[in-house]
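INFO batch 0412 | record 1 of 1 | parsing
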Amino acid sequence: MNGKVIAAVIAALVILIVVVVVVVVVVLKKKKTSDPESQSNSSDTSDSTPPAPAESTAEVLKVQFFQHCDYGGTMWELGPGSYTTGFDDNQISSVKIPPGYKVSMYENADKSGGQQIQSHNPKPPADVTKWMEIPCLIQTGQMAVYNLNDKISAIDIERLI
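INFO prediction complete | emitting tokens
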């Protein structure tokens, strides 16, 4: 009987250790995704550091590009810059643009051919935290002046604010 009790105690301790490890991993992941700037300064381990101002948080936002309409398939996230790589050529079908960004999408890598430029710079009292969503690049009208669905080969992203 003592052997069974010892085995039960050991099993309970193993389960407790696994639960603690899982909780620690989840907490660290959550902290990493919610405070990206703290990850860049690994020498500062103090919990008393005040959070970064909301304005600097906008700097880490990235434009999200999706393989399929309605934000399906593979997602590529790109920050400010000029790109002909970092996404699959001729595969982008939908886009989400964070506030304060301008995205220029081009049919050809040399930026010739069709192009579409989207600026998302909401001013108060508009919801300045809401992302611009383009569910399908085949649409016409205000959302698209040229059908770039599955035709994008170059992208320029500029932070406006």
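INFO post-check: DSSP finds three helices and eight strands in the chain.
INFO record closed
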